[in-house]
Amino acid sequence: GKLVLGVYDIVLTGDMDGEAQLTFHVEAKYNGKDVIILHYLEDGTYETYKGKVENGQVTISVKGFSPYVIALDDSASNTNTSTAPKTGYYPD
Fold first, then answer.
1. Cα separations (Å) of 83 from 36, 44, 45, 51, 56?
2. Is pLDDT at 90 greater than 50 in this prediction?
3. Cα angle, residue 56 at apex, residues 24 and 17 outer, rounded to 5°
4. What is the DSSP string of 9-44?
5. Distance separating alpha carbons of residues 7 and 82, to the nearest angstrom
């Protein structure tokens, strides 16, 4: 349900110790907007990163490479993102 700004499949040849900085380019019209970055892992799970678009790009620190999806975080004003929104009828 989010607007996808980019999909990247990053591969590293060799070994990496520690973290690396990844910078993803997105359209400059999203400058100042919050985004979420999903990093899909080999076991079928994913890690979630949050960032802000500045100068048409967003940068995160990572420990691994593989597919990444960047999406507009239109729920950034919601401080409790771990709880699904209530739907249906809930009497007081």
1. 16, 21, 18, 20, 30
2. no
3. 25
4. E----S---S-EEEEEE--GGGTT-EEEEEEE-TTS
5. 23
Whether 67 contacts 58, CB under 8 Å: no
- Which residues have a Cβ under 8 Å from the Cβ of 62 and sit 6 or more positions away? 19, 20, 21, 22, 39, 49
* Spatial distance between the Cα atoms of 59 and 57, rounded to a whole number of angstroms: 7
Is 67:40 a contact under the CB 8 Å cutoff? yes
Neighbours of 45 (CB within 10 A): 8
Residues 9-50 have pLDDT tens digits of 888 887 788 888 999 999 999 999 999 999 998 888 999 999
- Whether the Cβ atoms of residue 12 and residue 68 lie closer than 8 Å to each other: no
